[in-house]
Design brief:
The chain has 4 helices and no strands. The chain is an all-alpha fold and 66 residues long.
Length: 66
């Protein structure tokens, strides 16, 4: 699976639960919130004022090093 800015939080977490740790370290502590599941990565980052490109790079690095 390719993770992009358009990938929903639910899709990412279903693919690999380890991504939750990266999201939480980035400042998204609402990972388990039902409302966040349908948000895209880009939408979630925007709501939290987080750099989406950085979070996406961190997720891709995590997946590449598994």
């Amino acid at each position: 699976m390719e993770i992009t800015k358009a990938t929903t939080m639910g899709e990412m977490l279903e693919y690999d639960r380890g991504i939750a740790g990266i999201l939480m370290q980035s400042g998204m502590h609402c990972v388990g919130c039902p409302a966040s599941i349908g948000e895209s990565l880009e939408e979630a980052c925007m709501v939290h004022g987080i750099d989406c490109d950085k979070v996406l790079a961190d997720i891709k690095a995590y997946l590449a090093n598994k």
